[in-house]
């Protein structure tokens, strides 16, 4: 375990940092959700107070982790099925048309690829909780992407998310981090992220042939990708798990 002295601030406080240049481990197809531009294209301006950046004393100015959040308006009682995409869409609508956001959600915590497994994620989550509270919110939501679900793409997310260890904590390590930080698992978001593409695009993202209709297991995907060769498209529908973090 590498011992690090992290300095975590908002992107608004240090806009000069290359927060988006950091090497990461996200699969290429995850970078092609068409809804993502509603946040990331304006993250450094509109949402600079909602992006946390971390560097280490040993490498000052070099980003080692980031965490992104987005305020949004939600008038329902049950958290929505469309999870991550829904947060981005509702956040954009609230900014462009109103009403004022009444909730805030985490979007991602990304750790520099060579530092995965060194305990940075819980520290970033704690910082996100603190920043959400400073911004006046009483709850931080998160459509969580369980980090080992990709090993079981055909297992229903409801079954996977409900597994626990003998100590009662979640089986999945990333869900476990959230629960240990004070989060509560609420429900599954069955269509949290939708990534459509032509077969050529999916071949480019994955290196797989995509030459038959049906379902295809893609490395890093939490569920199979649905392929229709005759219509030249494939669609990935990712389930996530809603976690609520009370802040008061």
The main sheet comes to: 9 strands, mixed
Residues in helix, %: 10-25%
Structural class: alpha+beta
- Poorly predicted regions: none
- Classified in CATH, the superfamily is Gcn5-related N-acetyltransferase (GNAT)
Averaged pLDDT: 96
The geometry reads as: globular
End-to-end distance: 32 Å
Strand content: 25-35%
Question: How many helices does DSSP assign?
Answer: 6
Number of strands: 9
Which CATH class is shown? Alpha Beta
Tally of individual domains: 1
Which CATH architecture?
Answer: 3-Layer(aba) Sandwich
CATH topology: Aminopeptidase
Question: What string gives the helices and strands in order?
Answer: EHEEHEHEHHEHEEE
Gyration radius over CA: 18 Å
Description:
The protein has about 250 residues and is an alpha+beta fold. It has one domain: Gcn5-related N-acetyltransferase (GNAT) (Aminopeptidase, 3-Layer(aba) Sandwich). About 20% of the residues lie in helices and about 30% in strands. Strands 1, 2, 3, 4, 5, 6, 7, 8 and 9 form a nine-stranded mixed sheet that branches. β7 and β8 form a beta hairpin. The chain is globular, with a radius of gyration of 18 Å. The two termini are about 30 Å apart. The mean pLDDT is about 95.
